Amino acid sequence: MSFRKMGLLLACLCVLLMVGICRAQAQAAIYLQNFTTGQLAVWYLNDTTVTSGVYITPVQDPAWTCVGAGFFNGGSQVDLLFQDFSTGQLAVWFMTGATATSGAYVEPGQSSAWRCVGVNSFNGTGKHDILFQNTSSGQLALWYMSGTQANNGVYIDTIPPSGWACVGTGNFDQFTSPDLVFQNTSTGQMAIWFMNGVTRTGTVTLSPGQDPAWRCRAVLAPAGSNQQMLVFQNQQTGAVAYWLLNGSSVVGGGNFPTPPSGWVVVGPR
Q1: Per-residue pLDDT of the chain (269 residues; tens, 9 = 90+)
Q2: Strand partners, 262
Q3: Which terminal residue of the chain, N or C, has fewer Cβ atoms less than 10 Å from its own Cβ?
Q4: What is the CATH number of the domain that holds 118?
């Protein structure tokens, strides 16, 4: 992985996405990446409204996809996790606001068969761990992290049925263990696994069903809220929308600005 020199800023991502002063990291945010150029951007949220945004510097090599945002450096800044899908290798950008100040590979290397699908603290330390799903078998596995070093790994006790992709993690039952969010890639249906550590304790299917053209791309909690937000992006139009959940019940929803062509929501998850 290499930092590429920052060139001219791209045209404004949208009216609400502009270069500005970095917000406090406690503020809820949605991350986007242009898969052609590698450029990243962040939308800052006030409840369910995009209030502003910034480009993330420097520009990332497009071979590296942003797969999560979390605390890997022991501080209050949200760092960005990347994976090179061709090799499986992971790397972290340590962030100050929207600027990467340094970076490091995650050790050990990961197989390309395993894709990062979530970043959360699964052992209660506050440091974020990495959740993977095997692209062939659907098996889920977890790396317990200390910074960018995996200290231990464990499989999730249940393998999801074929066609169900894990799309993120969140707290849907107000217990400490992160729960897992799934989407059926054929039907669009959403489901939640309630977890106790790496053990599934229950499952719920969300209602209403989701159109399969809309892929869940991010899972987050609006600042100051007990609700969870699922962010969807239409694969044909690029439009971005959200559902608000109180527990496992969908209680609201709406639309975010549509980013220009080529920009994809990549997290947080």
Answers
A1: 544 433 323 333 433 333 333 333 457 999 999 999 999 999 999 999 999 999 999 999 999 999 999 999 877 889 999 999 999 999 999 999 999 999 999 999 999 999 999 999 998 887 899 999 999 999 999 999 999 999 999 999 999 999 999 999 999 997 789 999 999 999 999 999 999 999 999 999 999 999 999 999 999 998 777 899 999 999 999 999 999 999 999 999 999 999 999 999 999 99
A2: none
A3: N
A4: 2.115.10
Nearest-angstrom CA–CA distance, 204 and 194? 8
Distance of CA 108 to the CA centre of its chain: 21
Nearest-angstrom CA–CA distance, 102 and 100: 6
State the residue range of the domain holding 35: 3-267
Q: 134-158 b/e with 16+ CB inside 10 Å = b? A: eeeeebbbbbbbebbebeeeeebee
Residues across the chain: 269
